[in-house]
Amino acid sequence: MKFLSGCPSLSMKGNVAVMDAPKHVAIILDGNGRWAKAKGMPRNYGHIQGAKAVEDACEYAWNMGVEYLTVYAFSTENWNRPDEEVSALMNLLRDYMKNSIKRAMKNNMCVRVIGDKTKLDRDLKESIAKLEEMTAKNTGLHFQIAINYGGRDELTRAVRKLAGQVEQGERTPDSIDEAAIESALDTAGLPAPDLLIRTCGEQRISNFLLWQCAYTEFYFTDVAWPDFNKQELARAIEAYNHRERRFGGLRK
Question: Which residues are annotated as catalytic?
Answer without folding.
Answer: 30, 78
